[in-house]
């Protein structure tokens, strides 16, 4: 390292240093993520596999028609739901399990004693969720468009909605995942604790079932949690407006989606500040 570079880094503010190290940490976290075969399958490839299964299994079924008379195929209908599920898995499920394991095997304890700023650690985790979630969304969209001939939106306004729903969804899911990592008592039990939670949320939020087919009381329960709103936001982007009648209030309700995700994001930040510890209290 040159003398000039060393002097420049000495003049860095703590915030600038934390952000710089956080950027480097993102690269490390992404590489570590893709080296874990089981994690890649159950978080990255799982929605891709499920979209393929649903598209093939219900290839003869019709999920409605557009105003032009085009049939809405299973792949078209389930693509938005799988995009929302992918956001949940990349954020909440992946981070909850990953951090619980790091807490259990002593990784967090070692990091707590290192010069790495706390902010850099969290930037790395949030960045990992965003990068893997974005790659996953790209794979799902490519699969839907090329293999199952799902039409993609042509209106830039739809892609703007996708961008803010995706960004808010990733941040919300990742922060809640960090908070949820405090629940498993060990790294070994993390999978058993976290995966059932994400599976239940997917079933009641209209990912694997048509949301309008669920009982009204279960729709109301699902509306308490963020996945329902992420799925609704994705449907508003990729499904034709004729299907808006299947939503709870027969509206895509973009302001409601933004409000619900923002509330959960703030709630997740509060929960994380109260529950996150580098080591368990009972360890």
TrEMBL record:
Keywords: Antibiotic resistance, Membrane, Transmembrane, Transmembrane helix
Pfam family, one: ABC2_membrane_3
Chain ranges passing through the membrane: 40-58, 78-101, 122-147, 159-183, 190-211, 257-279
Keyword presence, Cell wall biogenesis/degradation: no
GO CC, alphabetical: ATP-binding cassette (ABC) transporter complex
Annotated ranges, domain ABC transmembrane type-2: 38-282
Coiled-coil parts of chain: none
Subcellular location: Membrane
Gene Ontology terms for molecular function: ABC-type transporter activity
Mode of membrane association: Multi-pass membrane protein
Location (main, coarse): membrane
Protein name: ABC-2 type transport system permease protein
Organism: Microcella frigidaquae
């Amino acid at each position: 390292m040159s003398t000039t570079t060393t002097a420049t880094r000495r003049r860095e503010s703590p915030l600038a240093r934390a952000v710089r190290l956080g950027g480097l940490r993102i690269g490390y976290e992404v590489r570590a993520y893709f080296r874990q075969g089981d994690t890649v399958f159950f978080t990255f490839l799982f929605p891709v596999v499920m979209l393929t299964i649903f598209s093939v299994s219900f290839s003869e079924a019709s999920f409605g028609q557009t105003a032009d008379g085009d049939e809405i195929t299973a792949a078209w209908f389930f693509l938005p739901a799988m995009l929302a599920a992918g956001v949940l898995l990349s954020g909440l499920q992946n981070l909850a399990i990953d951090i619980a394991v790091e807490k259990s095997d002593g990784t967090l304890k070692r990091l707590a004693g290192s010069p790495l700023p706390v902010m850099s650690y969290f930037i790395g985790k949030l960045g990992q969720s965003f990068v893997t979630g974005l790659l996953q969304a790209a794979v799902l969209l490519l699969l839907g468009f090329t293999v199952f001939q799902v039409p993609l939106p042509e209106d830039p306004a739809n892609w703007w909605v996708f961008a803010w729903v995706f960004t808010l969804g990733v941040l919300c899911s990742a922060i809640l995942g960090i908070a949820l990592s405090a629940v498993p008592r060990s790294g070994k039990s993390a999978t058993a604790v976290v995966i059932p939670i994400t599976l239940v949320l997917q079933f009641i939020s209209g990912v694997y079932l048509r949301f309008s087919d669920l009982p009204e009381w279960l729709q109301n329960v699902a509306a308490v949690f963020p996945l329902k709103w992420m799925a609704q936001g994705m449907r508003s982007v990729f499904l034709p407006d004729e299907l808006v009648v299947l939503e709870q209030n027969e509206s895509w309700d973009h302001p409601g989606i933004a409000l619900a995700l923002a509330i959960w994001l703030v709630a997740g930040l509060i929960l994380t500040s109260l529950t996150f510890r580098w080591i368990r209290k009972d360890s």
